[in-house]
Here is the input.
Amino acid sequence: MKNWLSTLKALIWKDLLQEWRSKDMLTAMLAFAILSIFIFNYAMELDPRQRAELAPGILWVVITFSGTLGLNRSFVAEQEQGSFDALVMAVPGLGSIWLAKQISNFLMMLVLIVIVLPIYSLLYNQNLFNPGLILTLILGAWSFSAAGTLLASMTAQTRMRDLLLPVLLFPILMPVNMAVVKAGMGVMSGAALASYQVWLTVLLVYGIIMTTISLLVFDYVILE
Amino acid sequence: MLIKLQGISKAYGRLAVLKSCDLTLESGQLLCLVGSNGAGKTTLLRVASGLLSAEQGKLLVDGAEWPLKNPEWRRKCALVAHKTFLYQNLSGLENLRFFSRLYQRDFSEKELKERLAEAGLARAAEKQVRTYSRGMQQRLTIARALLSDPDVLILDEPFTGLDKDGSALLVRMLAELKGRGGMVLMTSHDPQAALAVTDGFVRLSRGVLGEVLWVDGRSWSEIEPNLYPECIPEVSAA
Here is the structure.
């Protein structure tokens, strides 16, 4: 277990250091997210009530689309010089490669959320620093990165990965999208926790199931 | 240690790349695989390193059968392929530190720097790999492969990009590995360069592996006609 954790730590350290130096993922994600928020802001003139209702939906669309751009780039370093083979040869349990990449992608999503929330709040004149909404987004980001990392590892080997990843990912993410938006709307409208708790549970269960499936099938995905 | 690859067959769709190949490698032995482009050399190396499955065949380690894609087997091997497997945004030292952690080798900073110095990269240790020349990257790749102290070192065209000093360094490193009982399987388009260190040549032609041609102190001019018999000019009868 100790060895497994130290391998995981080394893999995450490598991903974060690579990203810190190259800014491959964050640049693409943030540029797209900020532009999208601006476009939504100018395209829709909403009254305060509509803003509160639509905020979780708009925010989640921006986050998932930007996140997909990031996911597409998350295996660039491995593809560049074929280092995936070196990882496969060095690591005893291949699940740690997936989990490390998943945690790195999740951290990138958190950075995205931390930057996007104040910009959105400022432009829409709406306070989004609500613990319930932040919790919803965090659960959504975990589920998104769990499903996305597995699919990105599959599409990374293909020439049409930029197209293939969203085509495969978005249908799988339907329950997550629905749950984030419904729970977010519940939070923003000030409804009682009981009315949207089921959506938070959906997010939690989806995250656990997708993480477990990914850990189980990653060996097969990579080696076959 | 004795490893045997028996009856390895591999196809990509309808294209049979390896046809029932048999190969035996003993401790302290280095075999050089030769063959033209597309002969199946890289595929054989990937199967041998546990990265690629085969339709047929088995791997025997000291007589015991191991699954071809066994993670434990993969960790006993180290592979140097066409691509460097290095992280371009990390320095040479960071790359070695990262891979040593994956292999659970507790190397100190001083030891890692010594490894880099052995590969002739002491002054470039802190520089990002993307600033390295192809030859420097190849040196680092070899240092990275030797980091795990592998039982079997698998090299695909290891002399690529190396200058004269680099090639001499590689030959020295391989000789040391053999001396420690390591096994080496390598491919080369320049078998003459490999002659200094190889124990034998095996030719792979259209997926069929030939018999091992042992060097036994012979010179290249003695070996070449046996390795490439079709290239011997026909002498017309007087």
Summary: Chain B is about 30% helix and 25% strand. The helical segments of chain B are 41-48, 71-76, 92-102, 109-118, 134-146, 164-179, 191-194, 220-227. The longest strand of chain B covers residues 15-26.
